[in-house]
Amino acid sequence: MAAMRFGLTAFCTDTSLSPAEVAAAAEAEGFDVVLFPDHTHVPVERRSPYPGGGDLPEHYKRTYDPIVACSYAATATTTIRVGIGVCLVPAREPIALAKQLASIDVLSGGRLVVGVGAGWNVEEIADHGVAAADRWAVLEERTLAIQAIWAEDEASFRGAHVSFGPIWSWPKPVQQPHPPVLVGGYGPGVLKRVVAYGDEWLAMVAPGRPPLRDRIAELGALADAAGRPPIPVSVQAYGAPPPDQVIERCIDAGADRIDFGLPHGVPDAGRRSLAELGEVIRRYA
Length: 285
Known about the structure:
TIM Barrel, eight-stranded parallel β-barrel, 19% strand
């Protein structure tokens, strides 16, 4: 059995460690990838419940733009992969996003990973002109359009929500056919989205959903029916229970990577948390 791989998800803000500091420390501790979440803003008037329960943490209001964060992280490191976990694609114009992401992949030497999702905060997405009921369809079309721009010298796309071309757009990503696309989520429709346009499932496990082992088996069956090889699964794990319990459960379920959430805090606290998580993952190296 291959050794479990580990990633780190970090809400970097103006009050925490910088993206460059987090990425450099994560690389030194042996993490495989560092992901930066995406929230363009938080509407003051919000009906969407925070998935973690309770009040929305303060740092959600202060996150750096993840594209900028990835750029800083890439320049401070040499081997660790950098990415967005996840990019709220319905909040971003696809032609510009395709160029931004391809530029990071080239400048980092092919180290970009791209998580994609439609977002839980429907008011945030609505501020970008996308209705709640349309955001999954918009996610799919924009992701496919971005992949076309990455792959084709003269790209075009015609859909209900995205239409352009033919266009020229360079640079093209170093990674071929494109940087890994991680489809995030745990709802009933996520596995079909993974098979349709993803290279990996970024599982955001939630209470009340089927067990991870069952979902991974279902994903395998869907991929096989579509003529695709097995699709890797990574799991975003936050907070309690302790990391060792999380790791053992994810290994038992068949996950390929576990991404721990770095607790948000002042820089000194962030450094301590990174060192503690590094000690945990080295036990499973």
